[in-house]
Amino acid sequence: MSSKGLKIALAMSVALNLFAAAALVTVTVGRDRVEQRVEAQRKPGREGSFKAVLSGLDADVRDQVRARLRESALAARPDFDAARAARRQAIDLAGQPTFDPAAVKALLEQSRAAELRGRARLEDNAVAVLSDLEADDRKALSVILARHGPRGPRTRDRDDAPPEARRETPAS
């Protein structure tokens, strides 16, 4: 090969290597951005546990808030129980040899309606609790209006859930 051919081959090799390096950087940066977006989507609605949120309140206020929210949760429990029961019935019905889509849809609609009733009751009572607090306490506790708490392994199983629907907590 002549020196002119070697120079052309070297220039092409350098250009190809630069192209490959640019592609590698682009892929790496793109992957990092995608991972950040995925993590941001998985981020819970509020930071910290409910206990951590309450820990910043005065002891008397904390006890009052805890009692009122507990009453609210107990009042909403039948709605959530009804939602789970209707969903279980829909699952059972969908697994039958003869499939009735109208009945399954009706049960799922009942489940959604019951869950919305329960959620509305919880949210309305949370707003009532917040309305009785001082501004600083209200600001600290306002995160309870976030739709979801921190995600992670559940600390307890639901006794009323079918065994196949119970989540196994991963070993850490």
How would you characterize the overall build of this protein?
It is a single chain. Residues 150-172 have low confidence and may be disordered. This protein has 172 residues and is an all-alpha fold. It has two domains: 1-40; 50-149, Four Helix Bundle (Hemerythrin (Met), subunit A), CATH 1.20.120. The protein is built from five helices and no strands. Helix content is 70%, strand content 0%. The termini are far apart.
Blueprint (SSEs and pairs):
Blueprint (H helix, E strand, L loop, with lengths): L2 H40 L7 H6 L3 H36 L6 H31 L3 H7 L31
Helix pairs in contact: 3-4
Provide key terms for this protein:
172 residues, mainly alpha, 2 domains, 5 helices, elongated, disordered C terminus
How many helical stretches? 5
State the CATH topology of the largest domain: Four Helix Bundle (Hemerythrin (Met), subunit A)
Q: Please state the second-level CATH architecture of the largest domain.
A: Up-down Bundle
What share of the residues lie within helices? 55-70%
CATH class of the largest domain: Mainly Alpha
Number of domains: 2
Kindly state the mean pLDDT as a whole number? 82
Give the SSE order as H and E letters.
Answer: HHHHH
General form: elongated
Characterize the quaternary organization of these chains.
single chain
Radius of gyration: 28 Å
Largest sheet: none
Poorly predicted runs of 5 or more residues = 150-172
Distance between the termini: 62 Å
